[in-house]
Amino acid sequence: MSRTRNTRASRLATAGVAVTSATLLAAALSPAAHADTRPTRAAAIENAAQALAQYAGTLGLTSTEGTSVRDVVVDKNGTQHVRYDRTYRQLPVLGGDFVVHLKPNGSYRGADRATRGEISLASVVPNISAPKAADLAVNALRAANLGDALKQVRAKPQLVVDALHGTPKLAWRTNAVGKDSLGNPVARTVLTDARTGARIDAWDSIETATGDGQSLYSGTVPLQTTQSGSSYNLTDPTRGNTFTGDAANKTDLCIFGICISRAPNTVFTDADNHWGTGATSDRASAAVDAQYGTNETWDYYKNVHGRNGIAGDGKGSYNRVHYGNSYNNAFWDDSCFCMTYGDGDGTTFGPLVALDVAGHEMTHGVTSKTAALTYSGESGGLNEATSDILGTLVEWYANNSSDPGDYLIGEKIVRSGFGKTALRYMDQPSKDGSSADYWSSSVGNLDVHYSSGVANHFAYLLAEGSGAKTINGVSYNSPTYNGSTVTGIGRDKLGAIWYRALTVYMTSSTNYAGARTATLNAAKDLYGAGSAEYNAVAAAWSAVNVN
Fold first, then answer.
1. d(CA 210, CA 194)
2. Could you tell me what percentage of the chain is helix, strand and coil, using 3-state DSSP and rounding each to the nearest 5?
3. Among 78, 124, 411, 454, which is most buried by a count of CB atoms within 10 Å?
4. Which residue among 81, 360, 364, 449 is the active-site one?
5. What is the DSSP annotation of 148-209?
6. pLDDT band at residue 2 using 50, 70 and 90 as cut-offs
7. What is the largest CA-CA distance in the chain?
8. For 186, how many CA atoms within 13 A lie in the half-sphere containing its CB?
9. Per annotation, catalytic residue among 65, 361, 378, 533
10. Model confidence over 323-344: pLDDT tens digits?
């Protein structure tokens, strides 16, 4: 991965029962051992049809109404439940659905109805035209997304009978859809009185769907996606509409921090909500990793630190994968509030979409919205270290068996041509050949990816302590500058202290001495002055020569 820095973008760089074989064989051959005596779906529907004919009056059915089966459930004891939708003069009835319950022998047991009022309309001819209903719905969609210039807006009205909102009435149910300025789908369903034009109700109609994806590095992972018609978008409405798009191997054209043009970012879509194959030949596989990493990072900050989104405002960032050609980098860019991932050259790096990379990049966004540590000198090293520290904690938080937590940075993305097993090593940063283990007056002159070693080393010592040990199958051996023995206080306390220091005490110009003060203040707030945690913070900083 490139270690250079560009303006406005920061990089990652049995207890059993004795039986005879004859007994087992007899049991296996017995029809009763395998027969399912429950009624079939078809039998349940037939039983329900007979019940409808017999109990039509009880269910409020008349000759003007029709029914269609939506679902069938047959319990283990044979009890049957047949769910119906209803029409009135061939128009769908909102609130007309009901469930018929049948005993195991098929006889009627009862029913549950969405609404109980009888349906009787003088006419099913609307006064309000379909185009007028469509206009009203489009206006409602725009109003619900005030401040965003919607694109590709369209609306489709359907004449229905509304039995959900009081006395049944003729209504237009109109689905209005479009895309926001980032290309995310937006949709709203508007229910309009077909006689008067008055709005009856309206609701967001983007449906969240749970899918899964085969990633490059993290195995098969769950994904929250958005259903749009008969397909799905890789957009997660449960996490601020975070989404992942394909940059089509293009790049941005930016001069002095001003981008004249941006690479395309086409949101990934899928027909069956099963994304990727786990191979680089499927472009969606890298997208699965990026989206999964975004999800885990979002959840870590929200569930551990109470932070709702990267900026704390509940709004999601987005990912761009397949950026450039053989691009050996990944970066966060404040100007687009997004993460960008290259595919790597295959020799030095593979696609740079690993979990700790995602956590690292999104943490740059958190830093930019909090301490805004200047990306140069010692503060720049702290900026990079913050992403390494909290990105590593995201990896531990995810608890993914395909990518278990460790104190190695980027170990999944390096290839043989890189010559090392990871980008950075938190237990002894100098193992990468360039990073600093300890503070010195010249640390601020190093590239920020190398000066970050001092804080990374501090974080490892604070969490795990000094000396040789094996954690999650990885061997570590962390030395100290002053020959001291440091006892760790655990990852959870490390994260709590560093996050509070970042968001409460650090500023844009914080250096290593200031970071010591900030983390001691944080430890005092959280655990008390003179507490074991407070003293551990002091000892870990001294162990990396920050006094």
1. 35
2. 30, 30, 40
3. 454
4. 449
5. S--EEEEEEEEEEEE-SSSS-EEEEEEEEEEE-TTS-EEEEEEEEETTT--EEEEEE-PEEE
6. very low
7. 92
8. 22
9. 361
10. 999 999 999 988 889 999 999 9
Is residue 361 flagged as an active site residue?
Answer: yes
How far apart, in whole angstroms, are the C-alpha atoms of residue 106 and residue 104?
A: 5
Determine the number of helices (DSSP H) and then strands (DSSP E) in the chain. Answer: 11, 27
Is residue 349 within 8 A of residue 454, CB to CB? The reply is: no
Can you tell me which residue has the tokens 């941006």?
Answer: 262
Determine the Cα–Cα distance for residues 410 and 397; give it in Å rounded to an integer.
16
Pairing relationship of beta strands 242-246 and 318-323 according to DSSP bridges: parallel
The C-alpha angle with vertex 331 and arms to 327 and 337, in degrees rounded to 5, equals 130
Provide the 8-state DSSP code for 503: I
pLDDT, position 115: 81
What is the phi/psi pair of residue 201, to 5°?
-165, 165
Token code pair at residue 165: 């909102």
Burial class from Cβ neighbours inside 10 Å (0-12, 13-18, 19+) for residue 138 reads buried
Q: Which two tokens stand for residue 343?
A: 């595919």
Average pLDDT, integer, range 72-94: 91
Q: How far, in Å, CA of 246 to CA of 514, rounded?
A: 41
Q: Give the whole-angstrom CA distance, residue 292 versus residue 353.
A: 10
- How buried is 274 (Cβ within 10 angstroms: 0-12 exposed, 13-18 middle, 19+ buried)? middle
How deeply is 114 buried, as exposed, middle or buried, from its count of CB atoms within 10 A (0-12, 13-18, 19+)?
middle
Contact at 8 Å (CB) between 523 and 544? no
**3-state SS, one letter per residue, for 404-457:** CCCCEECCCCECHHHCCCCCEECCCHHHHCCCCCCCCCCHHHCCHHHHCHHHHH
Whether 464 is catalytic is no
φ, ψ (nearest 5 deg) of residue 361: -65, -45
437 in Cβ contact with 448 (< 8 Å): no
Separation CA 283–CA 426 (nearest Å): 32
Taking alpha carbons only, the member of 232, 230, 260, 235 closest to residue 245 is: 235
Give the mean pLDDT of the chain.
Answer: 89
Rounded-to-integer distance, Cα 330 and Cα 339, Å: 7
Q: Are 133 and 114 in contact (CB under 8 A)?
A: no
Q: Cα 150 vs. chain centroid, distance in angstroms?
A: 24
Residue 401's contacts (CB-CB under 8 Å, 6 or more residues apart) are 219
Q: Facing residues of 275 across strands? A: 213
CA 367/CA 541 separation, integer angstroms: 21
**pLDDT at 229 (0 to 100):** 78
Q: Which residues of 234-268 are buried (b: 16+ CB within 10 A; e: fewer)?
A: bbbbebbbbbbbbbebbebebeeeeeeebbebebb
Helix, strand, or coil (residue 456): helix
How far out from the chain centre does Cα 372 lie?
25
For residue 538, pLDDT beyond 60: yes
Q: Which amino acid is at 288?
A: V
